[in-house]
Amino acid sequence: MKPGLFGQQLTVMEELKAATFVAHGRLQTAPFFQALAACQLPLESYVGQLRALSVIHGVLEQALAACADERVASVWNNDMRKLPLLQQDLRYFEPRAVADLKEAGEAALKATEQLRLRSVDQPLTLLGSLYVVEGSTLGVQVLRPIYARAFLLAGEEGLAYLRPYGAAVHARWAQYQQRMNALRLSAAEREQLAQAANELFDQLAAVFQALYPFQPESKTFLITSINPEAGRHPVPADAREVQAALRAADLCWQRFPYFEHRYGERGRRFARSDAAWLATLVHYEPAQILQQVQWLGRVLAGRGMPTLLLQVQLELLVQELSTAIPAKQSDYEKLSPAAVALHDSRRKHLADDQLHALTAGFDHAVGPEWSGKFPHTGALLAAGVADELAGNAGAVETLRSWMTDATRFPATWIAAVQTSLAQAQEHVRP
What we know:
Structural class: mainly alpha
CATH architecture of the largest domain: Up-down Bundle
Shape: globular
Number of domains: 3
CATH topology of the largest domain: Heme Oxygenase, Chain A
Number of helices: 20
Radius of gyration: 25 Å
Strand order of the largest sheet: 1-2
Order of helices and strands: HHHHHHEHHHHEHHHHHHHHHH
């Protein structure tokens, strides 16, 4: 420990506060906050803040949850997650189709690149990054009414992130301090935490500098506004196409409840970002479109999402894009051959009438309650078998392992899954 006033030793939290004092001050003096106080901050800047923070929180919170260091686990818990609150606020603003600010998005992605490196090379230092974002829970209490006044927001609409712990914020901060101060850290490790904290403060300062003021040409649409964990994938430049892609993803999500039960809200974000990326493929030649779709199909099939799902997603995407901008329907139809190719690949091994029969047989075996909860399960299992024969290794096992989990499903369901897979394997053509 470093000595403080009158020779007493500084705690971990006191050291972090002292070490980050200058960097914290630089962040607070950003023009962004001056414009906010004067109620002159553009909506793009506020929504851009939510998006940038969701990118950073998404990566940091995932890394903290996956960290094997017991000291990190003693401090972090899932109740500290802020990404769900940021996503809640962003859903409120979603109908307004607010443009992204490119430079702010790039600054946020730069921060996540460093966080990912730390999670591999120095996972303990993630606690220094956490210190920065957790400390903001105190500051936003003061800023919340200013944001509400500046953007005419009431209740929790668009403001959930700014009140993460409600009336318990000070109690939660005290508990967090206790956990941090209980850590056994060497002098070198304390210094590393301080470096990580200063690094994130500086990166956040770069984000807020890009959020305000900004040039009109900075306004665009970024994949991170849809899914903060998606990286740097392209999205359509036209807001109508972005919204059409999101509708298509949601329709596919609703048609196959398996998506939500297995992958949750995080899976929904990836489904949406994948749909937005697929919409950009219309600018490529047919052979390139097919190559990209087949690549994505292989990736998804190995993660428990048969190519049948991607085929349906493409069909819905063409419909939604054509409805949104009828004049460009011929462009959007360029995605249809890729959907047909996925269908044809499956039919080489399993005919459509066999797939329908397997679906009906599965529904009969599990009964109306479970077939209602998970419609089309028989089709997914059969499609997984066809995918594996088409060269997608692991397509069957990744389905089987989840769908035969006794903590999740009754014995009758598990038996039906095993029977359906066996029947599909009997019917497929090698």
